Structures are given as structure tokens and as C-alpha cells.
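note to self — DONT lose this again. spent like an hour looking for the file last time. sequence + predicted structure for the chain T wanted, 433 res
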Amino acid sequence: MKREVIYFVTLLFLGFLISCGTENTGEQTDSAEKELTFLTDFKIIAYSGPPQEEVTLERYQEIAEAGIEYLVPGNGAFDGETNLKAMDLGLKTGIKIIPVDIRLMPFTFKKVDAIDTAAIKAIVNDYKDHPSMAAYVVRDEPGGELFPGLRDISNIFKEEDSLHEPLINLLPSYGSPTQLGFDDYRTHIISFIETVNPGLLSYDYYALREGATMYEGWFNDLSIVREETRKVDIPFVIFIQSEGIDKGLRVPNRAEILWQVNTALAYGTRGVGWFCYWTPEPDQGFSQHDEEEPLLVEAHYNAMIDLHGNRTDLYKHVKEANFYLKKAGKGLLDWDNTDVARYEAGKLLEGTSPVVAPEGKGASIVIGTYRMDDKVRVVVSNSSCEIPASFFLTIDSQWKAEGIFASIDATPEKESLTSWTLNPGGSVVLELK
């Protein structure tokens, strides 16, 4: 978010399934017929919609075409009028809206003696009955000192509207101890969960820096968030990078887009958020108020839609990733991500993979084990966005590979289910019984 906010497939079709594929299967249909809420859905979110002069039906159709299902409009939409306009267009295009409302900011950006309950009730009354309403943005990247107040604010939202989650997006581990409010990241995450009692944990991590990729921090945060949310049985989502910021973040290429999505899926994410959809202005459309902390001003560039309203290459890359997630991500919704293991050059660095294990020094991969009844699906993703991974999988004798559930940028050797090359960012989801 902003730095401040899918049955069994036979081998006959193996060659076809190596591509992403978006055709419906019985399982997809069953999933689509469920009454999914923001908490139970696999969420494909984007932050920063069109600026106000571009808020039109055509532009929202363009958002839907990219496979985005939830939108935090932002970019000048910070009150009832502008957010309700977005919701009306969302209703016409199948997009759910997560509004940011400036009326919250006086008591979410700093400690206060009293919370303006009337303001929260007014916000809830403006949005709660709209069919495109998904959740409320309460705060982005708070420090630990704000957690007690955010708990109280969240509780008021829940009392006034039990159907829509108050959403708080957390910092990544590269936040300083002063920003986090704690000396280590796990304590930050645990404190947030214990204090605020959220229905979902959302955090961001932007690993693709100018001149470097922050691999270790990326995997470390995924591991911590996965472990701590499993303890309290809540889902997590991760906001990931789909733009550049001058002197900070580079614009991801296709492999880097897929790498973010597929490694997070192996770790059990229940959704991704793209930062950003429409390239925001440096101040992201906010107005400065005296009682708030200074605005963060950054030179954003070349998100999915650029500052002039044109599609960039990222639009097609993210669209491809989104439609892969509509199969792979949503198809894992009812499955339990019981184990994750990360290998580098064939060496196990962390976690466990009890059903399949890789052989070969080219096995720089992450393996996520998902279980449902007597079935297993394993997500095998390249742990690098730069180097291909080639390996052979050994399968525990109690299990048998049945087919490919989904794959992207993954090539089997001679139609084998156990010998693979994954391009940078590539992934395959295998079915086992």
C-alpha cells in the first residue's frame, strides 16, 4: 500500500497447462459461487486509482480488465463524495472499493486523548450499505505506539459495521526501530496482533531497489508474518511493488512481477496488493493539515498507468499475474498452507517440505505445501527473479503426483512431473494424492 496506506488435470493436457490458462473448471465455479467476503476471498487489490478528472466508467473498465478486484482509490478520493463515486463505478465493473477517508486522519496519525466516535459513525454511515463496499482503510504503516489507539478505533468500526473489516497496513522489517516502535520485526507483528486483534494482517514489502534486490528481508518477513498469523488463524496479504520511486525503487520487469506473486503464494498469502495502479502525484493527492505529520513527498513513476494516463508495460505484466492468481491463488483458498521450505543451490535454508524435496544444485526454490483432506498441492516457485532454477523433485513414497494444477514460466523435462526448469519468477502448482 502507499508508504504512509485453482480438478485434477490429466497428463494429456500437460503441454497446454504449462501456460497460465484462465479457463474455468468445476472447482473455480464452486469457489465463485461461495459467499466470499473481503476476509475469506483471495484478494487482488490495487492502490491509487485514477485522479478525479479521470474517474470514469471507461477507466474503471480498464481497471477490471487488468484483473484487479479490489481498489483503494486514493489519488484525491478521500471523502464521501469521491469514494461513493468510485463505489458506483465499482458496482458497474465488478470492483470492490476500500476507501481512505480523511476524516480519520486527525486521530490515526498520532496519539490522542479522545477518539472522534461521531466521525467514525459518519464514515460508516456513508459507505456501509453500498454493495461495492469492501473494507475501511484505517491507517498505513503505523508504529507500535499507535496500536492501542488503532485497536479502539477498529473496535468502533466493528461495533458500527460488523460486515466490513477495518484495514491497517503494517510496515516491513526495513522500517527503523523508531518507525516500528520495537527493536525487532517479529515483536512488531506479535504486538499488533495481540493489541489490535485484526481479522487479517496486511503489510508491505518493496524488495526491488535501484541496483539491488532485497531477497533475505523479503523471505524473512514472509516467514515471520506467515508463522504469527497461523498461530491466531487469520489470513495475511502483502502489498507489493508495481512502480518506481526515484532514488529508491526500480520499475519491476515481468520476471520480478511474477517472482513477488509466486514466492508469496508459496508462503501462504491470501492476497496481494499492487502499489500502485495509477502513478500518483508526489503527494499522492493528500492535502497538508497543520495537526498531521509532514506529508511524504516522492517522485513516483511508471506504475501500470503513468502520470499521463497511458498504459505501461507493467499493465500487461500485472494483468498476466492477476489472471494467474485467479486460478492458482483462488484455487488454494480452502487449502491449509502447512509447510514452507526455502532452498538455495539445493541447500535447505529454512522450513520443511515433508512431501517433496528437490535434488540438484540448481534448486534455488521455495516449496509451499498445501493440504486438504487426503490431497496435497505443492507450490514450487523460483526463489530468484534473475536466475533460472533447474531441479528434480523426489516424492515421499506415500504420495503420487497426479497432475499440474497451474503453472507459469515452468518447463517440465519430457512431460515429467518431477523434473523442472523454472524461469526467473516462474512457478508450478502440482497435485498429489
